[in-house]
TrEMBL record:
It comes from Leptidea sinapis. Residues 35-131 form the PH domain. GO terms for cellular component: early endosome. Keywords: Metal-binding, Zinc, Zinc-finger. This is FYVE-type domain-containing protein. Residues 255-286 have a biased composition (Basic and acidic residues). Residues 216-286 are annotated as: Disordered.
Length: 286
């Protein structure tokens, strides 16, 4: 089905429309062989609270962004190569229903659909795209993925020491290895997590010790560097922090974003052939 859509005029128009909705805040999405498979709104679990995000599924990438004006303008574009993605279904718990995890080496997060049917559709289409990509490339799916961050509101005290209460001054931080919400002193170390960044990242003390032990086991004793030379660092100002709020670029408040009614996602395929025939017929009749 995707192969038939590659050179369709409708596909080119759809991709151009997505680019125009992101405007200068997004990157070019039109590439040879790229197909827009589907689009729709999903609720993304951000560090502060769940927020609606517009998602676009292509045959090789997954794109999402903040909704400024529904179907007209989006910003904060994120592009995820599908070859790096692993999906994991989530059980329904309380208000959080019809969800699944999108895992990659650099970032992992939960999303929720409006209904169980939409969840099934999204997951089936994404899985199919991943399967086709890996089959064509001969690559293996990634074995390591970034931790899913625990939302801020699920931790009133540090998940490491179990003592520190979070306040305006005692800010929350996230361990980049396990995703736990921890206080400054319990996340005062950094470690180089190559799948996520080229720079050392904040980790909790427990993960720091475990990572150091794993690193020591993997390096022969005569090649081990002294502790002072390791690619780790202490976070400046652990209580106030290198950044009192950890970076999550699409977790900003959208004060000007109005609530929009829910629209069912659109997945392109069987209707494409009919649309093309009608387009050609109308041209021929002129």
């Amino acid at each position: 089905m995707v192969d038939r859509l590659v050179n369709s005029e409708a596909n080119a128009r759809r991709i151009a429309m997505v680019e125009s909705c992101f405007g200068s805040s997004g990157q070019s999405l039109a590439e040879q062989g790229r197909v827009l498979v589907g689009e729709g709104v999903l609720t993304k679990m951000c560090r502060k609270k769940p927020k609606a995000r517009q998602f676009f599924l292509f045959n090789d990438i997954l794109v999402y962004g903040n909704i400024v004006i529904n179907k007209k303008k989006y910003n904060k574009q994120h592009v995820i190569p599908l070859e790096e993605v692993k999906l994991e279904s989530l059980r329904d718990e309380g208000q959080y229903r019809n969800g699944w995890l999108i895992r990659t080496a650099s970032k992992s997060f939960a999303v929720y659909a409006a209904t169980s049917t939409e969840k099934e559709e999204w997951m089936a289409h994404i899985e199919k795209c991943i399967e086709d990509l890996l089959r064509k490339s001969g690559k293996q799916p990634p074995s390591e993925h970034a931790a899913v961050w625990v939302p801020d509101n699920e931790a009133t005290i540090c998940m490491h020491c179990k003592k520190t209460q979070f306040t305006v001054l005692n800010r929350r931080h996230h361990c980049r290895k396990c995703g736990s919400v921890v206080c400054g002193p319990c996340s005062s170390k950094k470690f180089l997590l190559r799948g996520q960044s080229e720079k050392p990242l904040r980790v909790c003390l427990q993960c720091y010790d475990e990572l150091n032990r794993a690193q020591s086991r993997s390096i022969p004793p005569n090649q081990q560097r002294p502790p002072a030379a390791k690619a780790t660092d202490t976070v400046a100002g652990a209580s106030g922090g290198e950044s009192s709020q950890d970076d999550d670029s699409d977790d900003e408040d959208e004060r000007n974003t109005a609530e929009e009614k829910h629209d069912e996602p659109k997945f392109y395929g069987d209707g494409e052939k009919t649309e093309e025939i009608n387009n050609h017929s109308s041209k021929d009749s002129k």
